[in-house]
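Need residues for this backbone.
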């Protein structure tokens, strides 16, 4: 079979929130060999690549992706047909050149990423390799520690909780399947604890429970309850937070727990939590432009917590370089749709690894059944993955793919 791209197709599909997104098919010698669906975020950073939406309020509440589909079928297809499907770097360079903007606002990051990921899948198929092996080569193959978002707040829920995600990290295990089981049992333990206290309500975008709580610290207390209630120790299972503080930051400061705080006061709260709870990781502790608070907290507490930049870095090499230079964090969250091509994603991850940063592959709040990020985490040996609660098929699809991969790979990461 020829390895040349013979065509691309695209369509609108629905994401896990019932919002349109784009799916792209890649054909090689007339055969469908690669398919990829693009995720979408709710809590988005200002510096992310631009997601193209139609803006027609009479259809899909303005969130249609018809133009993104047209861009793939009419513009991107014409530019890459005839290229070797495994020339990922060259394909992505053509996509960037075709768009011609610094933030992918011309074609849309969703159009570009859909094409980039579909070609990646087709390249793996041509070489008859599992995707993780195609991505990682001979050095790929490390099962990531799952960071499981079992209690939702912030922009992912309709509760009064400011912190967006409370996650369990089952890091003290020898195998991925053991860790996954532990995380799942904590999820059900949390459900029982909330039910017993009359706090069981709906679930958030990422499958976690979304109760109203007296304070954000109560979320941490329930996480410890969930871990211990499932029969595990906080030595085996730690806690991670995605504070998503950009969501509640303004010129006045941080609106947190009913008060307005400055960065120093918020940092003091975090320091106290690290003392009191098995808190191993804090993501987006401060606003995406509050570099001073980031660097100050790294100085005071960076040696005892994983400080993760998401909105701060948005998977962009330029933003990450600034963070490395100023010592603003020690870990990066990696979301493929924040940057828009697989090559740029891998380049940013490589920069982070060279700087000694931990790397966490992440889903978005608007997800699909696409499992690319599971293979990406394994192939790049990232060590950690965030893909939601062990509930809803848009989240469990990734966990199930990791279970399949774990039949071939025993190595389990130990980042903590």
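Answer:
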């Amino acid at each position: 079979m020829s390895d040349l791209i013979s065509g691309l197709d695209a369509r609108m599909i629905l994401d896990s929130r019932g919002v349109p997104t784009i799916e792209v098919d890649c054909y090689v010698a007339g055969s469908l060999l690669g398919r990829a669906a693009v995720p979408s975020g709710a809590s988005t950073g200002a510096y992310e690549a631009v997601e193209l939406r139609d803006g027609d309020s009479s259809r899909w509440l303005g969130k249609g992706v018809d133009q993104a589909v047209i861009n793939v079928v009419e513009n991107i297809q014409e530019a890459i047909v005839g290229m070797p499907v495994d020339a990922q770097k060259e394909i992505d360079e053509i996509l960037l050149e075709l768009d011609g903007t610094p933030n992918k606002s011309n074609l849309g990051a969703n159009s570009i990423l859909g094409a980039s990921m579909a070609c990646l899948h087709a390249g793996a198929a041509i070489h008859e390799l599992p995707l993780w092996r195609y991505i990682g080569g001979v050095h790929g193959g490390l099962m990531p520690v799952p960071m499981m978002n079992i209690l939702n707040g912030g922009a992912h829920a309709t509760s009064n909780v400011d912190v967006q995600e409370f996650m369990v990290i089952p890091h003290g295990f020898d195998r991925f399947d053991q860790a996954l089981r532990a995380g799942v049992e904590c999820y059900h333990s949390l459900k029982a604890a909330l039910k017993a206290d009359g706090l069981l309500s709906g679930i958030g975008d990422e499958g976690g429970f979304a109760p109203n709580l007296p304070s954000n610290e109560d979320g941490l207390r329930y996480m410890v309850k969930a871990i211990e209630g499932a029969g595990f120790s906080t030595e085996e299972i730690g806690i991670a937070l995605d504070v998503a503080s950009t969501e509640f930051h303004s010129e006045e400061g941080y609106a947190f727990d009913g008060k307005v705080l400055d960065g120093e006061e918020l940092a003091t709260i975090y320091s106290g939590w690290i003392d009191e709870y098995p808190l191993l990781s804090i993501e987006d502790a401060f606003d995406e432009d509050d570099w001073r608070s980031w660097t100050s907290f790294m100085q005071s507490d960076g040696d005892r917590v994983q400080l993760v930049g998401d909105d701060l870095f948005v998977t962009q090499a330029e933003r990450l370089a600034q963070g490395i230079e100023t010592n603003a964090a020690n870990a990066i969250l990696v979301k493929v749709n924040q940057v828009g091509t697989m090559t740029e994603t891998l380049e940013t991850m490589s920069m982070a690894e060279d700087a000694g940063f931990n790397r966490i592959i992440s889903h978005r709040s608007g997800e699909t059944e696409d499992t690319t990020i599971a293979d990406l985490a394994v192939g790049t040996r990232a060590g950690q993955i965030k893909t939601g609660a062990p509930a809803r098929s848009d989240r469990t699809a990734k966990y199930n793919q990791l279970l399949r991969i774990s039949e071939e790979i025993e190595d389990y990461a130990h980042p903590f």
